[in-house]
Amino acid sequence: MTRFLFVIPLVLMTSMASAQQPGHDACARDVSRFCRAQMNDGDMVVLACLQQNRARISKGCQQTLASHGR
Fold first, then answer.
1. CA dihedral defined by 56, 58, 60, 64, rounded to 10 degrees?
2. Residues 6 or more apart in contact with residue 53 via CB below 8 angstroms
3. Is 54 helix (H, G, I), strand (E, B) or coil?
4. 32-47: per-residue pLDDT in tens?
5. d(C-alpha 63, C-alpha 59), whole Å
6. Cβ–Cβ under 8 Å, residues 29 and 66
7. What is the distance between the alpha carbons of residues 33 and 43, in angstroms, rounded to a whole number?
């Protein structure tokens, strides 16, 4: 029983950590708006699409790309 109680918080902490992706959140709307057709083609294809649409994407996504050297 104690092992079970220890595992629950560990699983919750792990899932919360993987859900916190500020870059992903900042660009998620832009990806679905401008790069929907490329979403299943891989991260680099989506990144190229965002870069091609840089003038049209949100300021938050532009800042995220700039902070990652893109």
1. -30
2. 30, 34, 35
3. coil
4. 999 999 999 999 999 9
5. 6
6. no
7. 16
What's the pLDDT tens digit per position in 14-37? 434 444 466 678 899 999 999 999
What's the full length of the chain, in residues?
A: 70
| pTM attached to this predicted model | 0.65
- Report residue 11 as tokens: 């699983």
Q: Cβ of 22: how many Cβ atoms within 10 Å?
A: 10
Q: Which amino acid is at 16?
A: M
The single residue listed with the structure tokens 């919750």 is 12
Task: Using CB atoms within 10 Å of the CB of residue 53, give its burial: 0 to 12 exposed, 13 to 18 middle, 19+ buried.
Answer: middle
Report d(CA 35, CA 3) in Å as an integer.
Answer: 45
Residue type, 28: A
